[in-house]
Amino acid sequence: MYTDIVDLREFYESSLGQVARRMVRRRIRQMWPDLRGQIVLGVGYTTPFLRPFRDEAERVLAVMPASQGISYWPKEGPNIVCLSDEAELPFGDMSVDRVLLVHGLEGTEQLRPMMREIWRVLAGGGRLLAVVPNRRGLWARADWTPFGHGFPYSPSQLKQVLRDTMFVPERTGHALFIPPVRSRFLLRSAPAWEEVGERWFKAFAGVTMIEASKQIFAGVARRSQPVKRRLIVPLPGGAAPAARRLRPDGA
To answer: Cα(41)–Cα(23) distance, rounded to whole angstroms?
Structure first.
């Protein structure tokens, strides 16, 4: 079940949420340093992480699941967010270059249909970046944050989900090594926590990120029809087949 849009918005407006947004967004930016000329789609609750791409990408769009709710974004311009069933994205086939999936995979009740839709709208050379709560991290146990709701994944589980839905995992990243507490002292030291955690404690990150490419199968050559062979079955009593004609002499 998805976290309600009101709870998501309030979390990212809090001091803890602002730190989480900066740390996750910084790691996303490291994995996607240049998106010039790309069409970027966010699925789930991705607006806190899409802002750096607005002035760079050709176009930025966002979809929020119907059961989660929708929030207008950005406040200073025309809305670029729509509400949709995650299993029926309102975009054409192969119409986007990058898909950012945040607060989506762990909450959906339509995992395979959603991933199939993302596969459908993603261009052949496109990339998906899935961000999910890490099963072994502290944030997956912090139910006062949106990362503590839904189904968390270990890196190996997330890779298996991607493979099962026709994606090829390419790169893995981690973020949110700082404990999910509201201490001002700890929040100010978040960059140091990220640096140490990325080097020594990757297994205990708050979120796991995996970039994946779209798997496209080569066409299979059509096999020629097998040669049919006549099957001769002996009749009981030595009777002649009905199709055999008598010879003129009556034999």
So the answer is: 20
